[in-house]
Specification:
Layout (H helix, E strand, L loop, with lengths): L3 H27 L19 E11 L8 E5 L13 E9 L8 E11 L7 E9 L8 E8 L6 E10 L6 E11 L6 E11 L1
Antiparallel strand pairs: 1-3, 1-9, 2-3, 3-4, 4-5, 5-6, 6-7, 7-8, 8-9
Length: about 200
């Protein structure tokens, strides 16, 4: 009996080692992931794509006690009249009408940077974060060039979105409604055309 126990123990050890080795081989094969694969859009709840148009006003307030746009990087002292290098961060109200007292439908949050040396043109990076109706909590993302000095209507791409605007694409047109030269405050009308599900 004394000779059987060491043999049984050594057999169990060998069994566990072989089993562990097989488990490692099998689990190693299972852990290999596929980098990309096609999906059925219905699995993500995506139905027929639609085209929507949104119109609202963007209030860029740089003056007063409670500005909604603040300078985070000043233009260099030797900058041209285009303020090349200036960067402003903003959290601007979006309203249905041009008056600030109009119904608020969301916020524009992001930054713009003066990105041209020979004309007034901005790099715009922003999200339209909506708070109205079924769009509450959904966002549209804009990234593009706003050549404010040379064009009455400026066009920037919609590069995506969240919630109701997942997989969104389209464009936003900006038109200056009013600009206070003394303060720098501006009201911009936005017309946004977006494909989404």
């Amino acid at each position: 009996m004394a000779g059987i126990l060491p043999t049984l123990a050594s057999q169990l050890i060998v069994f566990f080692l072989v089993s562990s080795f097989c488990i490692i081989l099998v689990s190693g094969e299972e852990e290999e992931h596929v980098f990309g694969r096609a999906l059925d859009r219905k699995l993500l709840g995506l139905k027929k794509e639609k085209l929507s148009h949104f119109r609202f006003y963007f209030h860029d307030i740089v003056s007063g006690q409670n500005p909604t746009a603040v300078q985070v990087v000043p233009a260099p002292s030797n900058a041209s009249a285009t303020f090349f290098g200036l960067v402003r961060m903003f959290d601007n109200p979006l309203t249905l009408g041009p008056k600030l007292s109009s119904k608020t439908v969301g916020k524009a949050q992001g930054f713009y940077a003066s990105a041209a040396q020979e004309e007034i043109a901005f790099l715009m990076v922003m999200n339209f974060a909506f708070t109205e109706g079924k769009y509450n909590g959904s966002t549209l993302s804009i990234l593009g060039r706003n050549n404010g000095g040379s064009s009455r209507v400026r066009e920037m791409p919609v590069i995506g979105g969240s919630r109701l605007f997942r997989f969104a694409r389209g464009y936003a047109q900006a038109t200056t409604h009013s600009l206070e030269l003394k303060t720098g405050d501006a009201i911009i009308e936005y017309n946004v055309y977006v494909f989404h599900y």
